[in-house]
Amino acid sequence: MAEYIHGYDPEEQQRLVDQAQYWCDRLLLKNLELEPDAKILDIGCGVGAVLGIISQKFPQLHFAGIDHQPRQIAYAQQYLDQLALDSDLREGDAYVLPWGENTFDFALTVWLLEHVPDTAGIVQEIWRVLKPGGKVCLTETDYQSLVIYPPHPDFDYFQQALCELFSVADGNPYVGRSMGAELERAGFSEVQNTATSFHHWYNPHNQELRGLVNHLDTWIKLMIPLMVEKLGKDGDRSTTALNIFGLSPMIRAVRLPSPFTVPLALNRFTSKSRVALVQFTEPIHEILRFWVIWSKDFLLDGIMKLSAGWLLPCEPCV
Ligand SMILES: C[S@@+](CC[C@H](N)C(=O)[O-])C[C@H]1O[C@@H](n2cnc3c(N)ncnc32)[C@H](O)[C@@H]1O
Q1: Is the CB of 111 within 6 Å of ligand 1?
Q2: pLDDT above 80 (res 118)
Q3: Bridge partner residues of 39 (DSSP)
């Protein structure tokens, strides 16, 4: 098994807590509807941060979580205990869930599937442990969805290196694109997707943009040494890319380049029968012509939604 790229340092564990706070209303709780006494399972639960967020809105749920890293589960246990949350936390593999068939009403993954070599095996396990009529919410990503304007070759270089880093670690940086079709292949029905996108442009008072840049800064810069070490990439070029992106302290202290935009599209699928919500990032090209390009599967399905702006010819992304 390839090394998990984020690692399990205490700083990384705290980052997961902060990350869940950041995405709480923007993403994690958005459109989330659950029966008050539902049994929910967070697969790849990490330090329990997402379960903690969900419990703020749905305190009566029965919470379960699994992660294959003992240090994550130890942290999660302590963290959820502090929140006075009764939970069934297990150390184990997402491919072999230690629960019986038809156990849960709701299952979720948050930024798990980008790290695994075979998403289908996990989706099948989710199907097995969900009750008929149960739902799943997959919150995953696409690392090409983050784009800047004006474009810059060093930013493209950095982004490509980031994607390669996930790939050499047996993950999939584009996993979000594939999940709708994969859920249907696994037998899930009524899979739906709702796109939400973030599109920020620079002005000195844009706190949303500042918040997003600061949030991404907490982990993205840590990837540069790994790009150098594992891929032999040019660290200086990648650092330049982050400066352009506005992540370096120096640039941040001055100001972000103007015009500066960071669009991010989040797609959420919903369905009624056994599968529900999938949300993930999708690539957006042409920032000023702001819209979402859907993956081939969704284009074929004829499900194309325009976030804003005007229509351009679009190509399937994979
Ligand atoms: C990026 S973290 C996300 C954690 C959590 N979902 C969150 O959003 O805070 C990914 C987690 O997946 C776990 N993980 C990766 N592969 C796994 C597997 N095959 N089975 C169980 N957990 C896994 C890692 O240990 C890590 O804690």
Answers
A1: yes
A2: yes
A3: 62
